[in-house]
Specification:
It is a single chain. By secondary structure, the protein is α/β, with parallel strands linked by helices. It has two domains: 143 residues, D-Maltodextrin-Binding Protein, domain 2, CATH 3.40.190.170; 136 residues, Bacterial extracellular solute-binding protein, family 7 (D-Maltodextrin-Binding Protein, domain 2). Helix content is 49%, strand content 19%. The strands form three sheets. It has a five-stranded mixed beta sheet with strand order 2-1-3-10-4, with helices on both faces. Strands 8-5-9-11 form a four-stranded mixed beta sheet, with helices on one face. The chain has a two-stranded parallel ribbon with strand order 6-7. Helix 2 packs antiparallel against helix 12 and helix 14 packs across helix 15. It is globular, with a radius of gyration of 22 Å. The N terminus is likely disordered. GO terms for molecular function: carbohydrate binding. Keywords: Signal. One of its GO terms (cellular component) is outer membrane-bounded periplasmic space. This is TRAP transporter substrate-binding protein.
Length: 327
Amino acid sequence: MTIKHLRSSALAGALLLSVASLVQSETLRLNHNNPEDHPTHISMEYMGERLSELTDGELNIRVYANAQLGSQRESMELVESGILAMARSNTAELEAFEPLYAVMNLPFIFESEEHFETVINGEIGQDILNASRDRGFIGLAFLTEGARSFYGDRAVNSPADLEGVNVRVQPSPSAIRMVELLGGDPTPIDWGELYSALQQGVVAVAENNPTALTNARHGEVVSNFSLNEHTIIPSVVVISTAVWDGLTEDQQVAMRQAASEAQAFHSESWNETAMAALETAQNEMGVEINEVEKAPFIEAVMPMHDELADQSDDLADLIDRIRAAAQ
């Protein structure tokens, strides 16, 4: 064989290897509705980096911010059907797709951040994430977004301050029922429309974690943030069951590891992020931060726990397990 033939053979071999590498490399699309500077986006980018490292570039994640591929609910429907590989939702919206998520949305089900972390990092959390497999998606990680509180054009120091008030809620039966029990008028509004709804007085009050004041700039159009901390509703990174079943066993192991590491990475940084948001809102945006006596809120919403437990034995058992985890 001549040198020319050897060179040609080597070049052909290199091209074949390159093509094979391209064929073997896969990028999964992950859609969510937060901006790129939001902690959840940063943590999902970290998850993608770790997945690429663990699979030597064989499996990758491209994260789309600002609902580029659809709203939060639209994303879940696309994931269920296998059209979209991955999405970030939260437990409030996911209860419409998998009932067990409703337990995590119960107000004051978690006694503390430590109690919450114990649940999501243990067997209970994994059982919830896996429960939806036959519904078209599997949960991979919980990304805490801390405690949610009321904010708006007034201080909410007791349930009486919500009497007859339009309160923006997520499209979640739990969120709607909670506001009803507190005396408010629950008003589902899409996240992307909430800034203008607060600005124009369509709703007087909303509820979320402190980063809503800064990342979503709601601190520009509200005057008070009241720390009643009624729920801890985490984001959830999910993957289509159809996509998951198409991964090799090694890829599934790598995905689980990347998700677990992203969950830990996110939890470590969240509290600092939330405290910084409160300071910025107070010092730079003029938002008044109100300490609140929680007992009246707890008493008002406790019927929700029994109402949900009465719906099924599975829900009642999960409530008991979460309560026991606080001991």
